[in-house]
Amino acid sequence: MIPCSTPVGRAALVVNVEVFLEREGRWLFLRRGAGESHTPGALAGVGGKVEGEDAGPGVLERAARRRSPRRWAST
Questions:
Q1: How far apart are alpha carbons 68 and 46 in whole angstroms?
Q2: Could you list the pLDDT tens digit for every one of the 75 residues in the chain?
């Protein structure tokens, strides 16, 4: 991947990923914090912002494992 940044050095390409996990008929949702600027308190999938070298193949799996409770991320 070719690095891409703005004139002030911030990432020019930012990817937001959101993964919805289902296991044995149950779904994992997270409740967004009250202090979040976008939809505070809302239910959301697992994910987050991905920048630079983290973007690419396997990004959804890495985001899900990084943000999921341990019992969901172990498989």
A1: 7
A2: 556 677 787 767 777 888 888 888 999 888 989 998 989 999 998 877 777 666 677 777 777 777 666 666 555
